[in-house]
Design goal:
Distance between the termini: 44 Å
Strand content: 15-25%
Helix content: 40-55%
Structural class: alpha+beta
Oligomer: single chain
Shape: elongated
């Protein structure tokens, strides 16, 4: 049996670390997929439990030098742990900086321009420098040695190996010179590199501290979503009010929500009137009116009236819970562009070690006419400056910020790859009902033959009662408004692309569009045909009912276009999209909506299978296709398209149906999603360019001696922080 589990992994410091974990774990029999996110320090593993176990995977990760433990997908405790780690890192940096300060002061004694500066003799004493460097190198720096040893034992080389090689070379060479100068005194100051070792460790700690603090800012979007959740609710039972934990509530429980309180869990209003602020959930700033039978969602804020609600979902099933799950899933996944960085970092550290040894080889073979200590400086500088930290942070950090910002606007990306693919799409296929239109059709006309209107409405409502389609809902809502109860239908069968059939009170009832009855040789009375033609010309959707193979009546339904659709279509055209509308509705109704929206290409009376076939044909012709539908009857089209976007209607949010979900049914949000995709990918490319350029430029500078080792440490820290700061710009960049 295949299952997906989640890990928190500590001890990762660069892209080589995450790449190593993925490489090792993916070789374990039974592991189908593993994704490790350097930014969040979390992993996602899909495994076959018949072949391996999480215990075996965790043991393997620990053996190669990291610490992994299994967590619940919804675990939000890692932020508290990170804050503790930041405090420890802060203290380490402060102590290291205080111990490094005397070495930095003594370093001025080596410079002619600082010859007039007073430097206490004690600070230049080699044994004093040795004494204060030892705690930096072996106490504060001990975790570097520990992790480097584990990495080497596991057959890999990471950032810790580079740090240990460089600082140890500086420290032990200086240690050697100290005792040589003591036994064989010479005039002047011996050339020591204790300050180099101390500077490197101090700068790396500073870089890691700044990086950790800026990383925490990248998780703000998810933290805000978690903060929307409430832990307790006011339960109303047997005429009494009780405070109850939200996790223990069940569908059917009755809650009281007072003005100013958050709605604790998804439910349905059974009493009261109010307006609710849903902005943090959907990105819409205008409060929504709520009264009897209206749905309310966890995390939204009741503004001005007391509401009594009936719970409809468990806490783990609420829209807010689904949103958090989808956002975290997107942030944990990888975009295809990250494969570039992964391939490079997999071999980067060993190559750097070889490059770093070149100055020593050149010195040893007399190719370089310079002292050994200068060649050693170059080795140390190369080892430090080449660390691929920035490369590993370039993609996941931007993905986190981009998907987080999208979530705050009510846009959910299921995976990081969809965030990348969306911006590459140039062909858009739109559904009509619920996408361009409001998705809440209302009955405008009823024509019956040999039946009373109420009996006819009751019968067709029974057939449509369990059908999740806007036209079906319009019929059922009309029936509920006119009668107390709707009879139960049996043997309900959908007719894909046409309608539905069932038995009601023993009578066979078929409700479908005209195409179905024409195709199956069921002629319509002349008057009915004329009415149908007239209604369709007015842009209405017409459904025909036959009872026991006899014509029974016509229902005409109208669905108004959303006010935002025309503006959104105009924006999409400006972005260069080739737009088409494919709908199962009749030609006349489709023509009216297409004209209002500004869409030139449209096809009507298209079945779900034909929609999918049309998209496949476009893909075969080289198009990257974005399909936008309401997630109910567009499943085949959403599945075959390169990116499927579900446009929610606000009452039934089908988050699991598509690659991208627009919670509120506003097409302008789809345009925003495309812009976020484009800007995120531009940001990733900037980060990768900077990370690659940094190494390409800095390694040669370090090799020729332009970059001192302590400056290399500062530059390495700066590169990582700059990548994260650049990604954070996505939070405020205009759409």
């Amino acid at each position: 049996m295949e299952e997906t589990n989640y890990l928190v992994i500590s001890g990762m410091h660069c892209a080589a670390c995450s790449a190593r974990i993925e490489k090792v774990v993916s070789k374990i029999d039974g592991v189908a997929e593993i994704n490790v996110n350097l930014t969040t320090e979390k992993g996602r593993v899909t495994l076959n439990t018949n072949q391996t176990s999480m215990a075996a995977i965790i043991s393997k990760i620990n053996k190669i030098g990291f610490e992994a433990k299994e967590i619940d997908k919804r675990d939000n405790q890692s932020n508290h742990q990170k804050q503790k780690e930041i405090k420890i890192l802060q203290w380490k940096f402060i102590v290291s900086a205080l111990l490094t300060f005397p070495l930095a002061w003594a370093m001025f004694a080596h410079f002619n321009w600082a010859s007039s500066m007073y430097v206490p003799t004690l600070l230049t004493n080699p044994f004093f420098q040795l004494a204060i460097t030892i705690p930096i190198q072996f106490i504060i720096g001990f975790p570097f040695y520990e992790r480097a040893w584990k990495a080497i034992k596991g057959g890999s080389a990471n950032m810790d190996v580079l740090v240990v090689l460089s600082t140890s070379a500086a420290f032990f060479y200086s240690h050697y010179i100290t005792f040589v100068s003591f036994s064989v005194p010479s005039p002047g100051h011996p050339t020591l590199y204790f300050e180099t070792s101390a500077f490197i460790i101090t700068f790396i700690l500073l870089g890691k501290l700044l990086e950790a603090k800026t990383k925490l800012r990248t998780t703000e979007a998810v933290k805000k979503l978690y903060q929307l959740q409430t832990k307790t609710a006011t339960l109303y039972k047997d005429g009494q009010e009780f405070k109850a934990p939200v996790d223990q509530l069940s569908p059917g429980n009755i809650l009281i929500v007072r003005p100013g309180e958050k709605v604790p869990i998804d439910g349905r209003v059974i009493k009261g009137n109010s307006t609710i602020d849903e902005s943090l959930l959907t990105g819409e700033s205008i409060p929504v009116e709520k009264n009897a039978d209206k749905s309310v969602y966890a995390g939204t804020v009741n503004q001005n009236g007391l509401l009594t609600i009936e719970i409809t979902k468990r806490n783990s099933e609420t829209v807010l819970s689904q949103i958090i799950d989808v956002v975290e899933e997107a942030q944990a996944s990888k975009a295809p562009i990250q494969q570039i960085a992964d391939r490079v970092t997999g071999v980067f550290v060993p190559i750097v070690i070889v490059i770093a040894c070149m100055p020593l080889v050149a010195w040893y073979t007399d190719f370089l006419e310079m002292p050994f200590n200068e060649a050693l400086e170059k080795v140390i500088a190369v080892l430090i400056v080449a660390c691929p930290c920035a490369l590993g942070l370039a993609t996941p950090t931007s993905i986190m910020i981009g998907s987080g910002r999208a979530a705050q606007l009510g846009i959910l990306f299921k995976e990081g790859k969809h965030l990348e693919l969306l911006g590459n799409c140039k062909t858009l296929i739109l559904d009509k009902t619920g996408t361009l239109t409001k998705g809440f059709p209302h009955i405008t006309d009823i024509y019956v033959d040999h039946f009373s209107e109420n009996a006819f409405l009751e019968t067709i409502a029974a057939v449509e009662n369990d059908i999740e389609h806007p036209v079906a809902k319009a019929i059922v809502n009309k029936a509920k408004a006119k009668m107390h109860a709707i009879p139960k239908a049996s043997q309900v069968v959908t007719l894909p692309g046409y309608g539905v059939q069932a038995y009601v009170h023993g009578k066979k009832v078929k409700i479908a569009n005209a195409r179905y009855f024409i195709k199956n040789d069921h002629p319509l009375p002349q008057k009915a045909y004329q009415l149908m033609t007239q209604m369709e010309a007015e842009g209405k959707t017409v459904m025909i009912a036959f009872i026991n193979s006899r014509f029974a009546g016509i229902v005409a339904v109208a669905d108004d276009m959303k006010t935002s659709s025309a503006t959104a279509i105009s924006r999409l055209k400006q972005l260069g999209f080739d737009i088409s509308m494919l709908t199962g509705d009749n030609t006349s109704a489709s023509k009216v909506i297409a004209k209002k929206a500004g869409i030139d290409n449209y096809q009507a009376e298209v079945s779900p299978q034909d929609k999918a076939a049309s998209i496949t044909q476009l893909q075969q012709n080289g198009s990257t296709v974005l399909m936008a539908g309401d997630g109910i009857n567009d499943a085949p089209s959403l599945a075959v398209s390169d990116v499927g976007a579900v446009i929610g209607t606000g009452s039934d949010i089908a988050i699991e149906s598509g690659d991208v979900t627009i919670i509120k049914g506003d097409l302008n949000r789809l345009v925003d999603a495309i812009l976020i995709s484009k800007k995120t990918m531009r940001n990733i490319k900037q980060n990768l360019f900077w990370a690659f350029l940094y190494n390409i430029i800095m390694i040669p500078f370090a090799m020729i001696g332009v970059l001192a080792p302590w400056l290399a440490g500062a530059a390495m820290a700066l590169s990582s922080v700059s990548v994260v700061l650049n990604a954070l710009r996505l939070k405020t960049v205009p759409l």
